[in-house]
Amino acid sequence: MQQAIHVPQSIQLPLFEAFLAEPVLPGLKASAQARQKNSDPERFSELSLRGTPGHCQSLLAPVLRDLSEEVDARWLTLIAPPTSLTQAWLRDAGLNRERILLLHPSSNKSALQLTCEALRMGHSHTVVSWLGSLNVTLRQQLIRAATVGNAQSLNIRLG
Q1: Cα(132)–Cα(135) distance, rounded to whole angstroms?
Q2: Where are the domains of the chain?
Q3: CB distance 44 to 157 below 8 Å
């Protein structure tokens, strides 16, 4: 004969309700709301992709496609993209090529200089660059330039 085990009912919030509950620390919710109201949109983002070039391109395609379809009438500017991101690839990935500007570094301007200039000018809603790993100083430089031009900077790091 099996014995019935009685487990006392404890008060426990379901998983999702626990995350939606009021914060435990007083003032946490108020300070989060204040930060949200007073902060500018994030001006710098980074995306790190590792794997084969084809796999990385498959992951990158929807991001660039969404950016090329932005409501903002300004350019989506790509600076120093890998050689595999050709006009044919842009077309095949479904990007709006009429809204994309491709810039390549030259002996006169580095990729970083082009990126900062494109951000400051404000003709682009987003400037996507392939600058590799960036230190804090270079990130701050990109954030300042993006703030001046009311743009977003997205750095793609391929591993």
Answers
A1: 10
A2: 41-158
A3: no
Q: Are 153 and 142 in contact (CB under 8 A)?
A: yes
Strands of the chain, DSSP E? 44-49, 75-79, 100-103, 124-129, 152-158
Interval 15-46: pLDDT, tens: 444 444 444 444 444 434 443 443 456 899 99
* Amino acid occupying residue 3: Q
- Asked if 139 contacts 44 with a C-beta cutoff of 8 angstroms, the reply is yes
The Cα–Cα gap between 138 and 106 comes to 20
The arrangement of secondary structure in 41-158, i.e. its CATH architecture, is: 3-Layer(aba) Sandwich (3.40)
Query: CA-to-CA distance for 98 and 80, rounded, in angstroms?
Result: 18
**C-alpha 20 chain-centroid distance:** 26
Spatial neighbors of 76 by CB under 8 A, at least 6 apart, are 64, 67, 68, 70, 99, 100, 101, 124, 125, 126, 128
Confidence of residue 159 (pLDDT cuts 50, 70, 90): confident
| Res. 55: pLDDT tops 60 | yes
